[in-house]
């Protein structure tokens, strides 16, 4: 009998990894990096639910680090099976995994300098660039809605998730007496309706068991229009007071969305053509991937492209490659928008921009995405008045704005809207990828709609 084993993103948000066992073979749904409190994440990132060689295949929902970022570690530890994903997910991983490897190598280097001072032996990086490259070679791309067989007796297909470019939910069907039945659906990360650039999430397929993300259980996002107005107002008032808007954003998705909106507002003459700097090599690569996949654009994005003859490009938008050019942004005095990674302010060039701009009351720190527990982004979102960054203290005097409606994740009503057609068919819903409070609330909402549901626990096994 097929079996489900929860490993990561069970009772927490990061480290997405759910194991499916069929006839003694193991299929991993996602293989994400644990993030947050450093020491704890470090320890979790070195542990597998079983030896890596015993995992036969991976099906990957999307390219975000908390879903794909531990794949090179899996390969380093002995996995050499196929990794299935959509073409855009592979293209994004081609940049994101080597970048993540680079961060791991730097982290280990930094830790080892500290350890050497204490006379402690050095630690190995979680994985290196060569592991990321080997991992990419194992990837097999499958477009949405096309069946494939990751294991004997198992048929999967991807279903548009509307979360980031290339993102998908995964339908897993099991062969029983020669007939495919008893489907499992893994939602992956579910996007919002009416998000910029990409398509809306597709309807969930009928399934007996659903693994559902719960990031925004109990939450209602502002509707798209209100969120967009908030974004416009924040940028507009910062320009008026002569400040800079610093935006920590995931390199994929939020960065392109903000550039997309700025391009629309420039085009419509709603905002003066101030410089927009995209200061993240990874975001630049991701933007190339967006341009390479116009088949994934929604109606409005196609229109903008047709109307202006450009996409995510404009005379005001500048993509910054070199570190020297990134540093030179510190000397700019005129109003501008600086978009940089990482999205939760934990790594990357954004930390320099925060350090240099956070104490000027004319500036704005705009947090467009979810901020995980234990991250600098979360402390700022929660109203920290002072932060420590690069071993220096900084007073927080800039305006700090968290945009909730500008999320890449569905809110509770959107999740329930997608679940509704499954009422009466789905036997059990397992909630993953959420903090305790969000999960408890979504559980209550699903129960009220007569779904049988529970919050997945790490190590929990379920017969399918
Ligand atoms: Zn995601």
Short synopsis of the structure:
The chain is α/β, with parallel strands linked by helices. The chain has helices at residues 38-44, 65-68, 71-76, 87-117, 129-137, 224-240, 254-267, 281-292, 299-308, 323-328, 350-357, 376-381, 412-419, 436-448, and strands spanning 3-8, 17-22, 25-29, 55-59, 83-85, 139-141, 148-151, 154-160, 168-176, 179-186, 209-213, 244-248, 276-279, 317-319, 336-340, 364-367, 386-389, 392-395, 399-402, 428-432, 453-455, 461-463. It is globular.
Keywords, please?
464 residues; alpha/beta; Rossmann fold; 2 domains; seven-stranded mixed β-sheet; 33% helix; 23% strand; globular; binds zinc ion
Protein architecture, described:
With 464 residues, the chain is α/β, with parallel strands linked by helices. The chain folds into two domains: 3-219 and 408-463, 4-Layer Sandwich (Metallo-beta-lactamase, Chain A); 224-402, Rossmann fold, CATH 3.40.50. Helix content is 33%, strand content 23%. The chain contains 14 helices and 22 strands. The chain has helices spanning 38-44, 65-68, 71-76, 87-117, 129-137, 224-240, 254-267, 281-292, 299-308, 323-328, 350-357, 376-381, 412-419, 436-448, and strands at 3-8, 17-22, 25-29, 55-59, 83-85, 139-141, 148-151, 154-160, 168-176, 179-186, 209-213, 244-248, 276-279, 317-319, 336-340, 364-367, 386-389, 392-395, 399-402, 428-432, 453-455, 461-463. The strands form four sheets. It has a seven-stranded mixed β-sheet with strand order 6-5-4-3-2-1-22. α4 (87-117) packs antiparallel against α5. The longest helix is centred in the N-terminal third of the chain and has 31 residues, at 87-117. It is globular, with a radius of gyration of 22 Å. It starts with a strand and ends with a strand. The mean pLDDT is 93. It binds zinc ion. Zinc ion binds at residues 62, 64, 67, 163, 189.
């Amino acid at each position: 009998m097929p079996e489900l084993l929860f490993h990561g993103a069970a009772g927490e948000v990061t480290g997405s990894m759910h194991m499916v066992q069929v006839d003694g073979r193991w299929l991993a749904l996602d293989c994400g990096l644990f993030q947050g409190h450093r020491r704890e994440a470090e320890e979790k990132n070195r542990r597998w639910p079983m030896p890596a060689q015993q995992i036969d295949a991976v099906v990957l929902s999307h390219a975000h680090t908390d879903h794909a970022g531990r794949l090179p570690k899996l390969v380093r530890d002995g996995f050499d099976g196929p990794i299935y994903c959509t073409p855009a997910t592979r293209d994004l991983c081609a940049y994101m995994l080597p970048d993540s490897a680079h961060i791991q190598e730097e982290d280990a280097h930094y830790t080892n300098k500290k350890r050497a001072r204490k006379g402690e032996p050095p630690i190995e990086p979680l994985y290196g660039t060569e592991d990321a490259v080997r991992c990419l070679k194992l990837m097999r791309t499958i477009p949405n809605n096309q069946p494939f067989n990751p294991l004997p007796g198992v048929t999967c297909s991807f279903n548009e998730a509307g979360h980031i470019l290339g993102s998908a939910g995964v339908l897993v069907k099991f062969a029983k007496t020669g007939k495919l039945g008893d489907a499992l659906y893994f939602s992956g990360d579910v996007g919002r309706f009416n998000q910029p650039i990409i398509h809306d999430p597709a309807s969930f397929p009928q399934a007996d068991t659903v693994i559902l993300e719960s990031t925004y259980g109990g939450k209602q996002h502002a509707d798209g229009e209100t969120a967009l107005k908030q974004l416009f107002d924040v940028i507009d008032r910062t320009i008026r007071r002569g400040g800079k808007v610093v935006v920590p954003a995931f390199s994929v998705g939020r960065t392109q969305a903000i550039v997309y909106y700025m391009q629309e507002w420039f085009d419509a003459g709603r905002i003066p053509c101030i410089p927009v700097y995209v200061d993240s090599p990874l975001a630049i690569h991701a933007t190339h991937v967006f341009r390479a996949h116009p088949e994934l654009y929604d109606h409005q994005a196609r229109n903008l492209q047709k109307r202006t003859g450009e996409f995510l490009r404009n005379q005001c938008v500048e993509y910054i490659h070199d570190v020297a050019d990134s540093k030179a942004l510190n000397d700019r005095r005129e109003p501008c928008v600086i978009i940089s990674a990482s999205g939760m302010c934990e790594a990357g060039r954004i930390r320099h921009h925060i350090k240099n701009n956070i104490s000027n009351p004319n500036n704005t720190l705009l947090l467009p995405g979810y901020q995980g527990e234990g991250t600098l982004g979360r402390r700022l979102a929660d109203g920290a008045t002072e932060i420590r960054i690069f071993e220096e203290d900084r007073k927080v005097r800039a305006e700090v704005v968290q945009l909730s409606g500008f999320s890449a994740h569905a809110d509770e009503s959107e999740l329930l809207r997608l679940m509704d057609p499954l009422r009466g068919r789905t036997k059990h819903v397992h909630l993953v990828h959420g903090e305790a409070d969000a999960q408890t609330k979504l559980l209550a909402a699903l129960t009220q709609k007569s779904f049988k549901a529970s919050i997945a626990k790490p190590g929990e096994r379920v017969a399918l």
